[in-house]
Design goal:
The chain is of the alpha/beta class and 121 residues long. It has a domain of 50 residues. Strand 1 and strand 2 form a beta hairpin. It starts with 12 loop residues before the first helix and ends with a helix.
């Protein structure tokens, strides 16, 4: 029994199906489902909710969206979203002169608590 799989990996059956022209390819195991499907636009994270039964979607990217953002900065890199009104927190090793909560990557428990509280989960 396979619990893990990779989707869209060259030469896998799901990849071959998409390459052959299938508009949707689904792969599943007893513990996972993966779907690759053709779309007509870059979806907003809120649109993912119709596919999922979840309370919160965490997505990478979407820097220009109006959705709440937590920026993760690299050492000595200024925050890209520092002027974004949707910025709710920053995670990184530096401290910035910004009016949002700031965490280090080692503060996972605090970050999770912040997210749960911010979104009333």
């Amino acid at each position: 029994m396979h619990d893990r799989f990779e989707i869209d990996k060259p030469n896998k059956d799901s990849w071959r199906l998409k390459e052959a022209g299938a508009s949707v390819s689904i792969i599943s195991s007893p513990k996972r489902i993966g779907i690759a499907m053709d779309v007509d636009h870059d979806h907003d994270p809120e649109e993912f909710l119709r596919f999922l039964n979840v309370d919160l979607v965490i997505a990478e990217g979407y820097k220009r969206s109006l959705h709440p953002k937590i920026e993760i900065t690299k050492m000595d890199t200024k925050p890209m979203c520092k002027d974004d009104k949707a910025l709710i927190a920053i995670v990184g090793e530096n401290r910035w002169d910004l009016d949002v909560p700031q965490f280090t990557i080692q503060q996972m428990d605090e970050i999770v608590s912040f997210i749960l509280k911010h979104f009333n989960i």
